[in-house]
Amino acid sequence: MSETGGKQRERHADGAGRQENGIKDGIDELINQERVVIFSKSTCPYCDDAKKVFDKLGQSYSTVELSDHPNGGEFQSALKEMTGAGTVPRVFVDGKCIGGGSDTVQLYQNGKLEEILRKGSVETIDTTSDSDRGSGEKFC
């Protein structure tokens, strides 16, 4: 990989101050422009866990800190509609949601996250985990 050690960039998705469709468009634009995007809250330990995984892998990522964003609540509602989950973090790789903090840690621990990053396709990997079935993801 050409990325250097887990560098984080804070981003504000376009669509702030627009209606929900504008917010969804902003989210879509961001997740399709950046390799890894983490929608996070600055006080959420599960968000920190997800970021630490990418730091360990040396994979750069962009974050949108919803707790600091003027339209954070609207972004979180749009993410729930888009992904089916209303909690943070919501982690996207190559435009696809891989889940939350527990999902990201589990994918890292079983080697699937590195495979996803290497292959460049989330769809070729089974990313289901226990938390997808409702038994483990904590709420932030």
**Helix fraction bin:** 40-55%
User: How far apart, in Å, are the first and last alpha carbons?
Assistant: 31 Å
Q: What would the average pLDDT be, to the nearest integer?
A: 83
* Fold-level CATH name: Glutaredoxin
Q: How many individual β-strands?
A: 5
Number of helices: 5
* pLDDT < 50 runs, ≥5 residues: 1-5, 14-18, 129-139
Q: Class by helix and strand content?
A: alpha/beta
Quickly give the CATH architecture: 3-Layer(aba) Sandwich
Walk across the major sheet and give the strand order.
1-3-2-4-5
Q: What's the CATH first level?
A: Alpha Beta
Topology:
Layout: E1 8-10, H1 20-33, E2 36-40, H2 45-57, E3 61-65, H3 72-83, E4 90-93, E5 96-99, H4 101-109, H5 112-119
Parallel strand pairs: 1-3, 2-3
Antiparallel strand pairs: 2-4, 4-5
Helix pairs in contact: 1-3, 2-4
Protein name: Glutaredoxin-2, mitochondrial
Pfam family, one: Glutaredoxin
Region (Disordered): 1-26
3D architecture notes:
The structure is a single chain. The protein is α/β, with parallel strands linked by helices and 140 residues long. The protein has a single domain, classed as Glutaredoxin. Helices cover 40% and strands 15% of the residues. It is built from five helices and five strands, in the order βαβαβαββαα. It has a five-stranded mixed β-sheet with strand order 1-3-2-4-5, sandwiched between helices. β2, α2 and β3 form a beta-alpha-beta unit. The protein starts with 7 loop residues before the first strand and ends in a 21-residue tail after the last helix. The N terminus and C terminus are likely disordered. Keywords: Disulfide bond, Electron transport, Redox-active center, Transport. This is Glutaredoxin-2, mitochondrial. GO terms for molecular function: glutathione disulfide oxidoreductase activity. It comes from Orchesella cincta. One of its GO terms (cellular component) is cytoplasm.
